[in-house]
Amino acid sequence: MSKAKSVSNAQDSARAAKTSTWWGKYKDSLRYSLYVITHPFDGFWDLIHEKRGTLAAAHTFLFLFLLVRVLKLMLTSFQFISAPVQYMNIFEEAASLLLPFLILCLANWALTTLFDGKGRFPDIYMAMCYALVPYIMIQLPMTIISNGLTFEEGSFFTVMLSFSVIWCVFLVFVGLMEVHDYGPGKTLIFIGVTIVGAAVIIFLVLTFFSLLSDAIGYFVSLYREIVYRMY
User: Fold this and answer.
1) How many domains does the chain have?
2) What are the pLDDT digits (tens) for 29-38?
3) What's the pLDDT band for 83 if we cut at 50, 70, 90?
4) What percent of the chain has pLDDT over 70?
5) DSSP string, the chain
6) Of 48, 68, 184, 192, which Cα lies nearest the Cα of 126?
7) Which of 3, 12, 44, 131 has a C-alpha 20 to 30 A away from that of 82?
């Protein structure tokens, strides 16, 4: 009994140590985002090559980004945004950002072989997610503050929102440059090609589903016609 109990205690200790290690690394990777957004060149390099980031933290930032976007539409003062909240579907709003984001990551990864990029898909995804942190940190409090601002003070609100977006775009630029080990000029060209590639992917997906819908509609109509003639 004592031997079995000691084995059980050892297993529990090992499990607790593993959980503690994972949780500690997750918290460190969340905190490290503050260094990434303030020291992007060193931050993104260490994030990928020194394994300072985690996919769990990246998923967290992406979820918070989508949540902040939905809260912004729902809670921002009517003076600064006009969204039909009563007709809004939060899942559609989230999907309208999530799908293009994932497609951009996919297109960026798919084109790496043409541009001799070094980044893997998880690295690209992680860098893009960490680049969303300024949006979360600025737009969420500004959404709350907007309800205490007058219309004349709206310029401050607009400047802060624009600043958060510009900061995110800059971080995306630096993040992809560090992930693929490019220079600034090549990174700029690569981002442009990535946007075109994402547009092509979206076009092909929409075309596929349009043809699939037409095909299903044709067979449904054919089935109904056969049934109608038989009975």
Assistant:
1) 1
2) 999 999 999 9
3) low
4) 89
5) -HHHHHHHHHHHHHHHHHHHHHHHHHHHHHHHHHHHHHSHHHHHHHHHHS----HHHHHHHHHHHHHHHHHHHHHS-TTT----GGG--HHHHHHHHHHHHHHHHHHHHHTTTTTT----HHHHHHHHHHTTHHHHHHHHHHHHHGGG--GGGHHHHHHHHHHHHHHHHHHHHHHHHHHHT--HHHHHHHHHHHHHHHHHHHHHHHHHHHHHHHHHHHHHHHHHHHHHHH-
6) 48
7) 131
